[in-house]
């Protein structure tokens, strides 16, 4: 895809984010679009946000669990960037209008790094050694693509369909945990709606973060000390809107909650 189109589509996504509307899937408009094109579009989208003063605070892995892959019809992981404008404080209200378009809630395990991770060659032991703490987390995914009709190239271009995220409390040293066997319980309006385990993301959240470090290494992008890394949803996506309250419990780690207004 030529550079003019890459910039146009990145600008279209930025405009959709700011105006709160959706776009036709790129894969219905561009027969030849590939993953590398999509990541270039994503970078243009990100750079427009950075030009507004947003700062990168982390990165996210998307579409890692079978439940999410089956729901979206996308069968390989992707990645996106987290900025300070995406942070929602634990236990607070998240305003939907003007910020989110078609949000869905995911329950995840988040990592905060104390050392850089630079692929290739990163394994689970390296991730564990570089991690300061893990947290219960909500990622509220959101698509700027019509009706979530996404192929992998569409969600990659759209910053891995990231909306906002909520870090729960407290942070826990992962060396004391059996990460694949941690259990998450997700509640909507105080009703238990789904459960999952850490093994849902590529067998272990450590494996998912190692995949991200190695994938980004191909683009000369490090995972940096101090960044938050979202390792992927352990449960199916749940649509949310004004009036909904979401909460989760992650065994041996803690809780997170957010209300939508």
Task: Please describe the topology of this protein.
Elements: H1 3-19, H2 35-51, E1 56-62, H3 66-72, E2 78-83, E3 93-94, E4 104-113, H4 124-130, E5 131-141, H5 152-157, E6 162-167, E7 183-188, E8 191-197, H6 205-217, E9 228-233, E10 238-239, E11 245-250, E12 254-260
Parallel strand pairs: 1-9, 3-12
Antiparallel strand pairs: 1-2, 4-5, 4-9, 4-10, 5-6, 7-8, 7-11, 11-12
Structural features, described:
With 261 residues, the protein is an alpha+beta fold. It has a single domain, classed as Fumarylacetoacetase-like, C-terminal domain (Fumarylacetoacetate hydrolase, domain 2). It is 26% helix and 29% strand. It is built from six helices and twelve strands. Strands 1, 2, 4, 5, 6, 9 and 10 form a seven-stranded mixed sheet that branches. A five-stranded mixed sheet has the order 3-12-11-7-8, with no helix packed on it. A hairpin with a 3-residue loop joins strand 11 (245-250) and strand 12. Helix 1 packs across helix 2 (35-51). The longest helix is centred in the N-terminal third of the chain and has 17 residues, at 3-19. The relative contact order is 0.22. The model has no long low-confidence stretch (mean pLDDT 94).
